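Open question from group meeting: does this chain pack into something compact, or does most of it stay loose? Before anyone orders reagents, we agreed to write out a predicted structure and look at it together. Recording both the input and the output here so the notebook holds the full record.
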Amino acid sequence: QVQLVESGGGLVQAGGSLRLSCVVSGRTFSSYAMGWFRQAPGKEREFVASIGWTGGMTYYADSVKGRFTISRENAKSTVYLRMNSLHPEDTAVYYCAAERGRIPSVARDIEVWGQGTLVTVSS
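Structure tokens returned:
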């Protein structure tokens, strides 16, 4: 059974940066396309970014394009989300997601979720 464990969340001032990490265990990491989603209080879980099996394809939500960067290190079974120029509206629980058959884009279709890591951006 595959498991996803996120880390790297915390409190940061607006304009600051954070890097989230998600370590995958239990199955071959390279067989999964990976993604990041987030859920703010009272809102639905939304797509943030995703990356293909080899890292050659990346996709971003318009709200984070140019500020966030998703990457993966298959040798470490880890996917990252580098977040720059953070805004208070980026405050949310960030979830790592994995799918074997397609690149993650829709929350309801996700095969495996991590437990989430909280990011709080103060103004």
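Observations to bring back to the group:
The CA atoms of residues 33 and 52 lie 5 Å apart.
The mean pLDDT is 96.
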